[in-house]
Amino acid sequence: MLKNYLKIALKVLLRRKFFTFISLFGISFTLMVLMVATSLFDHTFGPQMPERETDKLLFVNMMREQVKEGYNSSSPLSYHFFDRHIRPLKTPEMVSVNSMFFQVNSYINNRKLALDIKYTDREFWDILDFNFLEGNAFTQQDVQSASRVAVINENTRQQYFGEAQAIGQYIVVDQVKYKVVGVVENVPVLRVQSYADVWVPISLKSQEFSKPGLRGTYFATIKARQAADIPKIKAEYAAMMQEVERQQPEKGTKLFSFPDTFLESIARTFLGNGKEPGVGILYGILAGLAFLFMLLPTINLVNINISRIMERTSEIGVRKAFGATSSTIIGQFIIENIFLTLLGGLLGFVLSALVLWYINNSGIIVYADLGLNLRVFAIGLLLCLVFGLISGVFPAYKMSRLHAVEALKGGSK
Amino acid sequence: MITLKNIEKVYQTKSIETVALHNVNLEIPKGEFVSIMGPSGCGKSTLLNIMGLLDEPTNGLVEIDGTPISNYRDKQLARLRNQKLGFVFQSYHLINDLSVLDNVELPLLYRSGTSASETRRLALTALEKVGLSARTKHFPSQLSGGQRQRVAIARALIGQPEIILADEPTGNLDSVMGEEIMNILLNLNRIDGTTIVMVTHDENMAHKTGRLIRFFDGQQVSDAKTATYNFQQV
To answer: Could you list the residue ranges forming a coiled coil in this record (chain B) (predicted)?
Structure first.
């Protein structure tokens, strides 16, 4: 039976080439956009090198101070705040302080090279899971003694040394000479918490350590012993923040700073209201957008399907006359439609792969390494099936209600 | 056996009520070859559709093998059509996208318990019976009218139905091809004992069958054995 349905489906597709093209284009293009978006989302928020254990990681990026009359100011944390309030937290397994990345210039053979530099402690390397191509991270000793050593990424190595080994060699960045101790795989810029071209010991910025105040240029990265500890860490952090708020000299000052997953921190920036990060709202908006985006091609497919099936009233009549029930007819058209959408899905995958390849190689997103992983593939497949069902059920149901006699009368010869 | 009791069929639109069949009482015993004649619009096809369980009467009772089917649901009617009935239409109604063989196999797709190889074997036997063994891989558009109708007959008989309902099976064919089709139907009736009800406009064809029922304005006006029906002629 299935073979018979598929034979017919293929024939119908080939018979109406233009309709088929429109249908397939609609499906594959929509899927392609959704899959590239999913891949970007996954790439940004999912577990990826070097933030592999996302379920155990929290980041603190922001400190917002709200003094009376709604005057707000926000920026990353001060080293002082980290040292005084985050380092002593008891629940985390480990905490790290690291700077935002700064764009600095470097010159190689009179050629200007813009590099992003980040200052980190030793814990940064223990918490995150970089792929080292050469050497290692700098040691606690290096950090304590403010050694001028650097870990560089693959791209920087290429710029400075070509294919040669980098370990033990020197680079000059922003007029400071560093000895290369390690080379890591490129980290995509979307991973703002860990991304840089060059990582150097945080102690090289020790002049900033004693600056008072809550706001500065530092992030905190927190690792939990186990995923279940995350709420406890958040609670401990909240309690600490209350205490800090209470100690503020200016009464009425409100402080907002939260240890968030990366997704939460993004959602909080755009949608959060005080304590709630708004991840639910973010998911809601994304799902809504995806739904709207899929709605148009689906309606279009429903229309095309109706006219495609209408041409086949005679066939429906014949099938009914020879023993097909309404539900068998619905089944047939749904199978045909799923076949069509899976075909569109397949094209969509190929298109997605091409677009992702293009993004990875074009430098639109620095060091992007987008791929069609299994998760994205599964989501895509699910989308295909949803497409097939939504756009097939209504026309199939409509046609299955057709009276056999009417269907036979309306059919072509 | 098909029994129709007090069948009435009324088509109702907003302003007009059309009586297509009025007080029709008929019994078609097993093994009979019945032809139904009458002018266009007299209700012949409606009657055939009601017998074929494709349409419901407004009033009256349809019985198949003594069982009234008025309370049957879509699924039960479909099963009955699949197992007991076969249809041959004036305009063949083959599925153009399927090959001859696939077209013939169609009824068995809806019958559980028949394996693919058995279905294929039965389809080839049915095509052999109508003399089209050499055309199995062709598509309907590659066949002549007579050949298409023979495929349609093969499709009707593959499920070995007790009753074949043929609506003007020779109506679109020239006299030679019409004769061929008629002979196939007569053979089916005579050799396999299949009950056949055929609507026709052709007196000649009608007189080859065993019983001729005439309709006029939705009513049965005569019902008689034909004098010329003779097994030896076939």
So the answer is: none
Task: Detail the DSSP E strand segments found in A21-109.
Answer: 57-60, 63-67, 71-75, 94-99, 102-108
CATH value at residue B114: 3.40.50.300
Question: How far, CA to CA in Å, does B155 sit from each of A110, A255, A392, B123, B189?
Answer: 84, 81, 29, 8, 16
Which residue in A has a C-alpha nearest to residue B112's C-alpha?
A1
Q: How far away is chain A from the Cα of B228, in angstroms, using its nearest Cα? A: 32
Set of chain A residues whose Cβ sits within 8 Å of the Cβ of B110:
319, 322-324, 328
List pLDDT tens digits, range B181-216.
999 999 999 999 999 999 999 999 999 999 999 999
Considering the domain architecture, whether residues A303 and A203 belong to the same structural domain is answered as no
Q: Is the domain of A107 the same as that of A37?
A: no
Last residue of a domain, one of A229, A259, A289: A259
**A314 and A220, same domain (yes or no):** no
Residues spanned by the domain of B111: 34-56+74-226
Distance of alpha carbon A32 from alpha carbon A172, whole angstroms = 43
Option in B78, B92, B98 nearest A323 (CB) = B78
Do B97 and A405 count as a contact with CB atoms less than 8 A apart? no
Q: What tokens were used for A83?
A: 């040292």
Specify if A53 maps to a domain.
Answer: no
Tokens representing residue B178 in the block:
């019409």
Residues A291 and A377 occupy one common structural domain: yes
Chain A residue with minimal CA distance to B51? A321
Number of domains in chain A: 2
Residue-wise pLDDT for A222-249, tens only, equals: 999 999 999 999 999 999 999 998 888 8
Mean pLDDT for the stretch of residues A379-390 = 75
Which of B93, B97, B109 minimises the CB distance to A1? B109
Task: Give the closest of B83, B89, B111 to A408, CB-based.
Answer: B89
Nearest residue to A57 via CA among A195, A192, A222: A222
Of A288, A285, A284, A301, nearest in space to A384 by CA? A301
Cα of A132 vs its chain's centroid, Å: 23
Domain assignment of residue A88, given as a range: 62-259
The CA distance from B230 to the nearest CA of chain A, in Å, is 31
Q: How many CB atoms lie within 10 A of CB A187?
A: 27
- Rounded CA separation A313/A316 (Å): 5
CA distance A31 to A35: 6
The answer to whether A323 contacts B82, with C-beta atoms less than 8 Å apart, is: yes
List, for residues A115-168, the tens digit of each pLDDT value. 999 999 999 999 999 999 999 999 999 999 999 999 999 999 999 998 889 999
- The C-alpha of B148 sits at a distance from chain A's nearest C-alpha, in angstroms, of 11
Given a contact cutoff of 8 angstroms between Cβ atoms, the answer to whether B62 and B53 are in contact is yes
Among A1, A396, A2, A328, which residue's Cα sits nearest to residue B75? A328
Question: Predicted confidence band at B234 (pLDDT cuts at 50, 70, 90)?
Answer: very low
The domain total for chain B is 1
A318 and A230 both lie in a single domain: no
Structure tokens at A279: 């991840």
- Do residues A314 and A240 share a domain? no
